[in-house]
Amino acid sequence: MADWLSAEQPLFKAIMLHLYASPLMSEVNGNIFDRAQVDITGNTYIVIDNTNVLEYPTSTTNKEVIAVTAHIYHKDEAHPEQVVDQTRQFMRWLRFYMQQIDKLPMEHYEVKRASLDLQETITDADLVTQHGILRIKYDVWHNVRY
């Protein structure tokens, strides 16, 4: 029986707000989204959408390990030989900002750690776009009062 409210939604919102305010937002021309998009302008966009939650309750508090997955899509038809390196650079920046746990304040929760769980770069089905996949795991503790 769940006696706790999950930190999943507050964490996701904190991550999105931090990314919207980060310099990465201008690097991708404002193309950071919380769900898949149909019409996107520009050659680069980021979608933060998938989450997974594992709960570790104790007698006095609750810990959750919440994994958040980001997808980066990038193409540069003028310089196709640079697309893989450019995509990896976008992934480096995204990982940096997603792991800034001091920038993720949440009421009733505290992020103690953020670590890389997966980083992968693949060629998309169109053979032009690179698809970067990044999953960060967050150790989130519930704040309780006695």
Provide a quick synopsis of the model.
23% of the residues lie in helices and 39% in strands. The chain has 146 residues and is α+β, with helices and mostly antiparallel strands.
Briefly note the structural class of the backbone: alpha+beta
Strand order of the largest sheet: 1-2-3-5-4
| N- and C-termini, Cα separation | 22 Å
Helix content: 10-25%
Residue share in β-strands: 35-45%
Could you describe the largest sheet, including whether it forms a barrel? 5 strands, mixed
Write down the overall geometry. Answer: elongated
Quickly count the helices: 3
Uncertain runs are: none
Oligomer: single chain
H and E order:
HHEEEHEE
Number of beta strands: 5
Rg, rounded, reads 17 Å
The whole-number mean of residue pLDDT values reads: 92
What would you say this structure looks like, in words?
With 146 residues, the chain is of the alpha+beta class. Helix content is 23%, strand content 39%. It has three helices and five strands. A five-stranded mixed sheet has the order 1-2-3-5-4, covered by helices on one side. It is elongated and about 60 Å long. 23% of the residues are buried. The model has no long low-confidence stretch (mean pLDDT 92).
